[in-house]
């Protein structure tokens, strides 16, 4: 459920007519609904009936500091995967004890920054990373809290590029024997403390069966870890819950949490989840103008550099005209101005559209702006946050100056 809806034939975000935003800020432009984000967080939080929980929003899905602030105000923690994301979370004055650091390639600098800020946990993804964190902890005379991210070897379905928990994927540690060997090692380490067990099996998951298997795996592994003497404080089941991009049906956070609570009912640890897409996905749209009509092409002013998902994953986003009109629908291929044949935002999309119309590419809040680039020297779109009957620019449209900011001219 989101707060983008037609009123008298015109598309609104909450109480704001989106034509107003397009007129004031131009297109392409990302628009987010604060109420939708808050609603999704509430749904996650209320889903937990029996267990202590912490929702660590996955910063990579939408990392604008104003958005992170909304989540902080809702008591969320953050799942981060880089020094930059750590700095974003610290910049908005997040309690570091709500930050978990995942990722297979943490550098020395990133580890030290996490240690110095006393984050909740590093989710360790390899034996080498464990030794590296221990070394840095020892050099700095610290005891560092860590979790082991294990690889549950389940196939979460969905696109190849976004599966992470299968045997042979680069993420997490497997087999379980290695996890237990490392648990023993940590128990005896003066500089590490094992406080969690974590996993993340993929993204846009439409089937709760893989979560159920994961919850069973995490329970069994936690029982084995108990025997190594470590006292786990949290079990982290990652993010990944799918959302409807068209009319597809996906499970709700409530369904997900009830499976987790059932499978882990005999465990006492806090449950951590790391949702990204299911919080911000349908809270954002990308506004774009139809520049030209050519045969069955709608050539719009947004492109693959603004929204990469269709070109990269063949992702299907629904697209609505701000002026509701279902008569004279035609099938269009909607393309952007970038000089690549893969710059297609939608294929065979049925709608009524004319040159000059403004369209809303839906469900673009997660992995939308954050994956945008300057390819073809296109400036990045602005981000605008709607809160009821007000709106604020939370990131300005880039300018030519921004484009060349870090370039050095040999002629100067
Ligand atoms: N935790 C970890 C360790 C992750 O790697 C991810 C996403 C999440 C949580 C959040 O997953 P979510 O709830 O958003 O599914 N760019 C792709 C998605 C890549 C996901 C990467 N990891 C897309 O546009 O579909």
Task: Produce the secondary structure layout.
Elements: E1 4-7, E2 10-13, E3 16-17, H1 18-25, E4 29-33, H2 34-47, E5 53-58, H3 65-73, E6 77-80, H4 83-91, E7 99-101, H5 108-116, E8 121-124, H6 127-139, E9 144-149, H7 176-187, E10 192-198, H8 208-226, E11 234-236, H9 253-263, E12 270-273, H10 277-280, E13 284-294, E14 297-300, H11 309-313, E15 319-321, E16 330-335, E17 344-351, E18 358-361, E19 383-387, E20 390-395, H12 400-404
How does this structure look, described?
- The mean pLDDT is 95.
- Helix 2 (34-47) packs parallel to helix 9 (253-263) and helix 8 (208-226) packs parallel to helix 9 (253-263).
- The strands form 3 sheets. Strands 4, 13, 14, 15, 16, 17, 18, 19 and 20 form a 9-stranded mixed beta sheet that branches.
- The protein is built from 12 helices and 20 strands.
- It has helices at 18-25, 34-47, 65-73, 83-91, 108-116, 127-139, 176-187, 208-226, 253-263, 277-280, 309-313, 400-404; strands spanning 4-7, 10-13, 16-17, 29-33, 53-58, 77-80, 99-101, 121-124, 144-149, 192-198, 234-236, 270-273, 284-294, 297-300, 319-321, 330-335, 344-351, 358-361, 383-387, 390-395.
- The protein is 29% helix and 24% strand.
- The longest helix has 19 residues, at 208-226.
- It has 2 domains: 4-33 and 281-403, Lyase, Ornithine Decarboxylase, Chain A, domain 1 (Beta Barrel); 63-275, Alanine racemase (TIM Barrel).
- By secondary structure, the protein is of the alpha/beta class.
- Strand 7, helix 5 and strand 8 form a beta-alpha-beta unit.
- The structure holds ligand LLP.
- Ligand LLP is lined by residues 58, 61, 79, 102, 162, 200, 203-204, 238-241, 274-278, 309, 313, 366-367.
């Amino acid at each position: 459920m989101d707060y983008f809806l037609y009123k008298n034939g015109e598309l609104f975000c909450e109480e704001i007519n989106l034509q107003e935003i397009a007129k004031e800020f131009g297109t392409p432009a990302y628009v987010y609904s604060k109420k939708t984000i808050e609603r999704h967080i509430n749904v996650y939080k209320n889903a937990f009936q029996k267990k202590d929980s912490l929702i660590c929003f996955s910063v990579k899905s939408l990392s604008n500091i104003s958005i992170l602030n909304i989540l902080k105000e809702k008591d969320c923690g953050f799942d981060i995967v880089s020094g930059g994301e750590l700095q974003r979370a610290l910049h908005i004055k997040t309690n570091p004890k709500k930050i978990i650091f995942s990722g297979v390639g943490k550098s020395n600098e990133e580890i030290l920054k996490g240690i110095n800020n006393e984050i909740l946990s590093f989710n360790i993804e390899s034996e080498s990373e464990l030794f590296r964190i221990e070394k840095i902890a020892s050099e700095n005379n610290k005891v560092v809290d860590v979790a082991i991210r294990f690889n549950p070897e389940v196939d979460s379905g969905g696109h190849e590029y976004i599966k992470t928990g299968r045997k042979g994927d680069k993420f997490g540690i497997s087999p379980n024997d290695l996890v237990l060997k490392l648990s023993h090692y940590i128990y005896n380490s003066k500089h590490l403390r094992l406080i969690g067990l974590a996993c993340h099996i993929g993204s846009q998951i439409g089937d709760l069966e893989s979560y159920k298997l994961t919850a069973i795996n995490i329970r069994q592994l936690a029982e084995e870890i108990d025997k190594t003497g470590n006292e786990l404080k949290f079990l982290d089941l990652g993010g990944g819950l799918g959302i409807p991009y068209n009319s597809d049906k996906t499970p709700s956070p409530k369904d997900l949490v009830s499976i987790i609570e059932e499978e882990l009912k005999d465990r006492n640890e806090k449950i951590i989840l790391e949702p990204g897409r299911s919080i911000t996905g349908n809270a954002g749209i990308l506004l774009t103008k139809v520049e030209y009509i050519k045969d069955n092409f709608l050539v719009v002013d947004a492109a693959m550099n603004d929204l990469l998902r269709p070109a990269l994953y063949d992702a299907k986003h629904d697209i609505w005209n701000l002026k509701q009109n279902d008569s004279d629908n035609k099938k269009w291929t909607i393309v952007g101005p970038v000089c690549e044949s893969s710059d297609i935002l939608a294929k065979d999309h049925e709608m009524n559209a004319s040159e000059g119309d403004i369209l809303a590419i839906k469900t673009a809040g997660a992995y939308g702006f954050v994956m945008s680039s300057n390819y073809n020297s296109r400036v990045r779109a602005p981000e605008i946050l709607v809160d009821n009957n007000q709106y604020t620019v939370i990131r300005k449209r880039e300018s030519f100056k921004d484009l060349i900011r870090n370039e050095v001219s040999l002629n100067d």
